[in-house]
Amino acid sequence: MRRTLTVGFVAVALCVGAADAQAQSDPNDAEYARASQLRSAQQLDEALAIYQRLAAQTHAPRAIGQIGVTEAQMGRWVAAEEHLTAALATHDPWVDAHRAVLQAALDRTAENLGNLTIACNVSGAALRINGTAAGTLPRATPLRVPIGPVVIDVTAEGHEPHRQSVSITTRSTRLEVTLVPAAATLTRPAGAGAAASRVAAPTPSLATVVAPTPASRAASGGSLGRTLAWTSAVGAAVFIGVGVVGYVVGSDAAAQWNDDSRCLQSTMPTVTRGGQCSGLSDTADTMQTLSYAGFIGGAALTITSAVLFVTAPGSQQRERARARFGCGPGPTALGMACGGAF
Predict the structure, then answer these.
(1) CATH code assigned at 157
(2) Is the pLDDT at 24 greater than 60, yes or no?
(3) Is the predicted pLDDT of residue 3 greater than 60, yes or no?
(4) Confidence of residue 221 (pLDDT cuts 50, 70, 90)
């Protein structure tokens, strides 16, 4: 198919080139004729440079049309379509005289292009196609891209970059891109061409806090102080329990997110990990925050309880007792154990 199109474009180039060689009314006819001869000799880069210089100097539809024909010969389908369409939109005498030939070149160019629509969860994200800037998302109209494999790059401030290879096999292709916030704890897989980053499980640290033996205090103030101390101790246990739940649930969500068999399907290459399992990423982030809050709150209340036990007065029997409460690494599946002696 492409070989046939190449032969067809040579015929189109010879046709418009012969017309340029015979033209006599344009002061730039000699330059057009020289460019046409170069193009006929397959010196396409040199011919294109002449046409581009003429277009910059004169803005003539004739030069723009010749640029489009030359780009089509070179396989630069997107640029060729733009220039041929622009030339045909005018009523320039040269264009009118060669309209049928230029339209044939445009029709053959269109056979090598397809429509690509990209939806992104971040408005204003920058888009690059095969390394060339293609504006921002969302777009009002589909992109015109060459049929075959193309590489899509989508970037946005505050988000991890996204790269994906897409095979354009039909006239209309739709792609959904989900950018992951950079604020989340992310690890990128070592394999090349991975479609998305993976969420790391939360790794909170837990310090053991032990309340020392309270000193002797007056009996009148001991009751209230010890009540507040016990209340703080119970509150610390509740907060630490919340932290444990957040840690377990967040770790499970992160493990499911990292599971390729669940979130990446080989039968659906255009579906990203974020598009398939975006809920798991949100759950992991939420539980991570809850885990941190629980452990921090538990540590604060444990310290408060320890201070109250130290300062609250009690009986001589209580003074001799050793009041202790703490949590630390343990042998259980959760990796933590809490205990106390009062």
Answers:
(1) 2.60.40.1120
(2) no
(3) no
(4) low
* Domain, as residue range, for 172: 113-179
- How many folded domains does the chain comprise? 3
289 located within any domain: yes
SS (H, E, C) the chain: CHHHHHHHHHHHHHHHHHHHHHCCCCCCHHHHHHHHHHHHCCCHHHHHHHHHHHHHHHCCHHHHHHHHHHHHHCCCHHHHHHHHHHHHCCCCHHHHHCHHHHHHHHHHHHCCEEEEEEEECCCCCEEEECCEEEEECCCCCCEEEECEEEEEEEECCCECCEEEEEEECCCEEEEEECCCECCCCEECCCCCCCCCCEECCCCCCCCCCCCCCCCCCCHHHHHHHHHHHHHHHHHHHHHHHHHHHHHHHHHHHHHHHCCHHHHCCCCCCCCCHHHHHHHHHHHHHHHHHHHHHHHHHHHHHHHHHHHHHHHCCCCHHHHHCCCEEEEECCCCCCCCEEEEEC
Judged by average pLDDT, the poorest of 149-153, 182-186, 232-236 is 182-186
Distances (CA, A) of 291 to 89, 178, 238, 250, 296: 63, 26, 12, 8, 9
In terms of domains, do 14 and 123 share one?
A: no
**Are residues 81 and 117 part of one domain?**
no
Looking at the structure, do residues 24 and 117 belong to the same domain, yes or no? Answer: no
pLDDT tens for each residue of 305-337: 788 777 766 544 454 545 555 666 555 544 555
Same domain, 251 and 327: yes
